[in-house]
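Quick question, first post here. What does this chain look like in 3D?
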Amino acid sequence: MLTFFLLSFGVLLLDGATAGWTTSHLFCVYRSSLKDPLFYLRLFGHVLGHADLDHFLNNMLLFLVIGPPMEEKYGSVPLLKAIVLTALVSGVLQCILFPGVALLGASGIVFMLIMLSSLAGGGGGIPVTMLLVAALYLGDQIYAILFVQDNIANFMHIVGGVCGTAFGFYSAYTRPRKKRTRQRAMPSCTRPSSTPLQSCV
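> Answer (accepted):
Ran it through. C-alpha cells below.
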C-alpha cells in the first residue's frame, strides 16, 4: 500500500515537472493502436495517474485508511494481484465502452478495497455489511451515472467494486482452512484430604 502511494505521488510530481506530458502519455488509458507499446503500459499505469492534487488526495486518503488492514489480512502479493487485475479490467472496459474518453486515477482501486473490506469480517456466507455497502455504494454510483454530469468515471467505480467482491469471495473459498486439533484435557488437580490446601496453576 505504501509503495502504491509513493508511486502515485511520484507520478503526480512528474505530471507537474513535465506539464502533464507523462500523465497523458503514460498514466491514463484511452483507445489507441495495439501496436503502440505505451498502450499496454497505460492499461495498468492509469491507476497511478491523477488529474491534480485534489484528485490525488481524495483517492489517497481513503486508500491509506482502508488499504493497510486489507494488506495485513490478505497479504501483499495477493492484494497486488487484485490491484493489477482491477487496473486491467477497468482499462480494457474503458477502451471498449468509452473510446473517446481517457481514464485515470486510483478510485477504482479504492472502491475495490471498500468492497473487499466489507467482506473481511465474514466467517462464511455473505456478510450483512457487504450487502449494505453494496446497496448504498451501487445506488449512489447508478444515481450519479443517470443524473450527475461530471468528469467522474462512476461506471469504473462499479467495476472496481465488482473486482473487490470477486477477489474477496475467491480468497474466502481458496484460503486453506485451519484443521481443528483435539485439545488434550488438562490434568485435574486433587489433593489428599489430610494435606493443607494448595493452589493449582
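Residues 12 and 52 are 7 Å apart (CA to CA).
Residues 185-201 have pLDDT under 50 and may be disordered.
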